[in-house]
Structures are given as structure tokens and as C-alpha cells.
Write a structure and sequence with these properties.
The chain has one domain. 0% of the residues lie in helices and 67% in strands. It has no helices and eight strands. The radius of gyration is 14 Å and the shape is globular. It starts with a strand and ends in a 5-residue tail after the last strand.
Length: 103
């Protein structure tokens, strides 16, 4: 499905609503699937936001649907990052806005 996502956290810390801006938005196709190709070495659910030619923009591990309302929903899960050669997992939430595509 086509969505715009707004990341609600930065390195696990909640971003105040007053600071949420268009810099933190991403647009693309959202898919959720199970995969065993991950750093946890087990089968997990993964949400992917892809844009153009299947390039992954964002990834959320073990996503959970928090709420749905009028073309919007929130997914929460784990965001994996590399920092100074170390793997770090952060809590992350995505506000997803559905994009209506007319045929």
C-alpha cells in the first residue's frame, strides 16, 4: 500500500509534536512480511517502506499495529542501526498516512 510515514522517535526518544517536520517523512510502498534474513538469526515480522526500484528506505522489526483511524495508523517496533561499528536497536513508531492512488 502507498503511504507516507512520519518517524515519531529519534534514536528511541519521543520527538515532541512541535518538532515533527517534513524532514522526518518518507513516502513509498509499505509491506509487512516474515523473514529470517536479519541480525537476530530467527524468523521475524518486518515492515519495509520501499521507494523506486525496490530500494528499502526504512525498516521496522516486529511491527505491532497500535491504532487505525480514517486513513491513518501507527506501527511500533524496533529500528536497527549501526553506530561506530556497533549494532543498536531502538524503539520506533511510524505514523502512516494512506495515499489514495486513482486509477
Amino acid at each position: 500500500m502507498d503511504v507516507t510515514i512520519i518517524k515519531m522517535r529519534d534514536r528511541g526518544k519521543i520527538i515532541p509534536k512541535s518538532r515533527l517536520c517534513f524532514e522526518l517523512t518518507r513516502r513509498g510502498k509499505l509491506t509487512i512480511s516474515e523473514t529470517s534474513k536479519n541480525h537476530l538469526h530467527r524468523t521475524i515480522r518486518t515492515a519495509h517502506l520501499t521507494a523506486g526500484e525496490g530500494r528499502i528506505n526504512c525498516e521496522l522489526l516486529e511491527p505491532v499495529l497500535i491504532w487505525v483511524n480514517e486513513g491513518r495508523f501507527v506501527l511500533s517496533g524496533i529500528e536497527h542501526a549501526e553506530s561506530e561499528g556497533h549494532a543498536i536497536d531502538y524503539v520506533q513508531s511510524w505514523l502512516c498516512l494512506l495515499i489514495c492512488v486513482e486509477n
